Every structure is written in structure tokens, then in C-alpha cells.
Amino acid sequence: MSEIKIPLRDMRFAMRELLNWDQHYASLGYEDASPDVVDAILEEGAKFCENVLAPLNQIGDQQGCTWNDGEVTTPEGFKEAYQQFVEAGWPSLAHSVDHGGQGLPPSLGTILSEMVGTANWSWGMYPGLSHGAMNTLEAHGTDEQKHTYLTKLVEGSWTGTMCLTEPHCGTDLGILRTKAEPNDDGSYAISGTKIFISAGEHDMAENIVHIVLARLPDAPAGTKGISLFIVPKFLPNSDGSVGERNGVTCGSLEHKMGIHGNATAVLNFDGAKGFLIGPPNKGLNCMFTFMNTARLGTALQGVAHAEAGFQKSLAYAKDRLQMRSLSGPKNPNGPADPIIVHPDVRRMLLTQKAFAEGGRMLVMLCAQQVDRTQVGSEEERKEADDLLAFLTPIAKAFLTETGYESANLGMQCFGGHGYIAEWGMEQNVRDARISTIYEGTTGVQALDLLGRKVLMSQGELLRKFTKVVHKFCKAEVDNEALAPYVAKLQEINQQWGELTMNIGVKAMENPDEVGAASVDYLMYSGYAVQAYLWALAAKVANEQLAAGTAEEDFYRAKLATARFYFDRILPRTATHASAMQSGADNLMSLDAEHFVF
């Protein structure tokens, strides 16, 4: 079984050659993010992930977390790995120096998160959830809250969670019941039960800071009556040390299909002391800071599982001997040929490769926009925020759907061995499956994209992206090497707008048309965005080959993958377009009681 190797060469391609991050950092004033510093971070991060985290991945799956009277023990080696992570300063990498961070760009933190997730997704969720807590406190917390909690979260001695879901409500947070009663000292007594809390209880850090949605006594009904609170596991002392235990306990751990190494907790809040973040009844607005961080983090999960599955199935396909090539023996001195010679195995490997590398490009494009939302003029920040708002639901849903597809293809390459635990492929599939569900299912992301981001903006957010594609196509229209890509990209770009307009017109007559088209629309959008990125990658590869690069094989592989994507993956858009245009009636005409007889 092959070991995970962090794909540093491909990361550098996406960062530097595709998206020009070196100039990007310089233009935003990140003087410390010099090429040498960035390279050092990449190299050291890769070593930690390959040598420390990857060997714990299967251990975490096999052992899982154990619950005993409210206390949770993580799998063997997890706690020690986290201490190494903290001692090396990784949690503070991309956070403000005002709170002990290193002040490096958020996008560098995204690169580290991909490395961690590819090596060991379950472990990575413990520090990963802290990023959302930190961003929420940074954006909405008081100075005192930042001093008390943010500093500890940044250094990594404390971790964070977000507590939204309750037993009776998942996505529909408007009906949540957790209560927040005012205390005389200005704090609140939080009571209720939250479920599916990733990293909600563990033994890896000295304290856990829960970011909790709850209702004040006089709150209006629905989502307009939700407030946001900090509820620590242990109440901090005045000197910042851990004090008395708060009234929040872990009632149980969920028994899950995958990510066994991460504790998914049921948390009971029994008059736990909490502290309001942001204005009363504006908690959902504040929580979206956390949710958007988590959604981009989950997009990374799709890339991580695609990459991990691809690496292992590629190594296996090169080694496994079975049957002879249809075009004649390729291993004449052996009893059979390696399965990588068979076209269908190539199809599965190239699909994984295209989705892993294309997904990486998309996540890095999003990460670049996160950087831009924090620095620059108000107009520049809004431009980046609009692009990020449009791309986030696509990245979260499309990359997790294709990541899960890739994990399945990786397992399929192994044949029967893929079904056996020792190879790690079935674990990769099980771990990947949750990604299309949490932080908003694919259906929820699709409604957000089509309903809120596209139609409610009168198509403005879509047009901002399609204009980027249009400019690229216009600039490269006479580039013979890119002609196959540009022609198809222009066609998709035009159809994208037409489909959007048609759905919008239908929706004015029947709002169900939005829900009926939404998932197909999102998947179409994902394929379209990745087509642009693969065309851009082909442009860079052609330029490097024309310049006489010494890495000819690398760039030829990029061109071959781009060609595969356009010839065999992008045509999927035709099916999604046809499904969208078929309307809502074929979904809604059957009465609920007639689904089964």
C-alpha cells in the first residue's frame, strides 16, 4: 500500500503559475509571505503531514473515539500529534499578530489545511473547526472576548466548535429551541441539546470553546430571533488559565459511517454560562462568518479524498497484473499486464486526477478571494467578496460530490481488494460520504447558489464570473493551441446565462422551478468553472513547453488531463442542461401518497 505524498509540485503550479500568488501577496502587502518563506512552510507542512498524520489515519478509523462518563479519548497518537502541531506554531499561521498569530495570508492556511486533510481528515477536523471560531470572534467579538478566547485559540491550546443542529432541526435553524436566560452578571444561562458537533469533546486541548446558537426570552420567532454565544467547556480565570467546569457535557458520541477518528458529539447545555457575541437576535448573521469558513473547509475535503484515492489507486494500477492489453502485451515477460494499460482503468484514474487537480485550482481561487476581502479598497474588497459569495456554494457542493465520486473510483480500481479494509480505500469512501451532507447539503448549497446568489442578485454575481471567462476567451481566440478549449468554453459560458434566464422566467410563474433546477444548475456551474480553470492551466502549460521547460513531462501531463476533462467530463453539462429545462412538473405531479402502493 502506497503512502500519502503531499502534491507540492501541483500545489506550486496552482499557486504560482495559474494564480500568481507571489505577486498577489506582494500587492496586498504581505511582505513576510516571500517565496522563500512560502516554500519553507510548504516543505515543513508536507513533512509533518506525511510523517506524523498520515500514519495515524487508519489507526483513527480502526480505534475511533471512546466515550466514558462524558469524557472522550481520541485514538492512539492523536493527542501527541496535536501537541507537535501546536508546538510548531501551525495554528497561528494565518491569524492576526494582534492575538499572537503570524500574520500570514489566509490562503496559506488553506494550503496547510489541504495537506492535513489529505493525510488524515478525521484528525484535521480538530484544529479545522477552530478556524471558524477564530474568524467569528475576530469579526464579531468584543475586545475582552478576543483577549480571553481568541489568543488561546490562535496559539492552539484551546480548540473551537460550532453548535447549530438540534435533534428536531437540521438545516431549518428557525425552529431551534436552545434557550439563553440572562444572568445578573451580564452573562447568559444556556440550556438545550445540540447534536452532530464535530470535535465537540476530546482530550487534545485543555479547553474547548463552543460557539452556540440560542434564543433569548423575548426573541421573535424564526431566524430573526437567534443569538450567538460563546460557551467554554471550562470558564477562564482572570489570568487566562482554565477555571471551573461549565455546565456543558457530552451526552454521547454518534456511531458514524466514517471519520471515526473525530468525535461527533451530542452536547447537553444545562444552564451553562455563555457570553453574547454580536447584537441580540443577529446570531445567524454572525454565524455565517463561521459557516462560510466551514464550507470552504469542506470543499477542501472533496479535494483531499480525491487526491488520496487517486494516489493509492494509481500506485496499485501500476503494480497489479491482470489480463493482457487489448492492443498487445505491454509486459511480455510477466504473466499479465499492469491494469493501468486498460482504457477503463485509465478513465477512472484520469477522472480522479482531473477532479483532484481541478478542485485544488478552484479552492485556491476561492482562498485568493478570501485574502482580497481583507485588504485593499472598499471597492476591491466588495469585488472579491461578490466572487467568493458566488463560488463558495459551488466549491462546497461540487467538490464534495466529485470528491466522493473520485473516492469511489479509487476503490473501484482495486477491484475486490478495494472492499478490504487493509488497503484504506473503503475508509476513504466512508470518510468522504459525509462531505456532501454537513455544512449544508448539496441541495441546500444549490438553493443558495441559484436562489440567493444568482436570481436574487438579478444575475449580477453570475455575470461577474462569466465576464472573466469571456475576457479569457476573447484574449485567446486566435491561440491555435487553445482553440479546442476556447470554443467549448465560449459555448458553455453563453448557455450558462441562457439557462439562468429561462429558469428565472419559469420561477416567476412557479417558484418550485428553482428547487427543481437547483442541483443540476449547481453541478453545471461546477463543471463550467473547472472548464475555465483547466483552459487556463492548458494555456500555462503550452507557454512553458514553448519556452523549452526542463519539466516537459509535467506540463504534457497537464495538457493531457485538460484534454480529458474537456472531452470526457465537460459533456456532462448537456445532461444537466436537459434536466433543468425539463421543468418541475415531472418532480411535483405525483401525489405524496402515491409514491408507493
Write structural notes for this entry.
- It is built from 18 helices and eleven strands.
- The strands form three sheets. Strands 3, 4, 5, 6, 7, 10 and 11 form a seven-stranded mixed sheet that branches.
- It is an alpha+beta fold and 597 residues long.
- The model has no long low-confidence stretch (mean pLDDT 95).
- The protein is 58% helix and 11% strand.
- 50% of the residues are buried.
- Helix 5 (106-119) packs antiparallel against helix 6 (121-140), helix 10 packs across helix 15 and helix 12 packs across helix 15 (512-546).
- InterPro entries: Acyl-CoA_dh-like_C_dom, Acyl-CoA_Oxase/DH_mid-dom, Acyl-CoA_Oxase/DH_mid-dom_sf, AcylCo_DH-like_C, AcylCo_DH/oxidase_C, AcylCoA_DH/ox_N, AcylCoA_DH/ox_N_sf, AcylCoA_DH/oxidase_NM_dom_sf.
- Its cofactor is FAD.
- Classify the helix fraction into a percent range: 55-70%
Characterize the largest beta sheet: strand count, sense, and whether it forms a barrel: 7 strands, mixed
What would the principal axes of the Cα set say about the shape?
globular
Query: Helical stretch count?
Result: 18
Distance between termini? 49 Å
| Poorly predicted ranges | none
Give helix and strand order, one letter per element, not per position. HHHEEHHHHEEEEEEEEEHHHHHHHHHHH
Structural class, judged by helices and strands? Answer: alpha+beta
Question: Which value, in Å, is the CA radius of gyration?
Answer: 24 Å
**Rounded mean pLDDT score:** 95
Sheet-strand content, in percent, reads: 5-15%
Number of distinct beta strands: 11
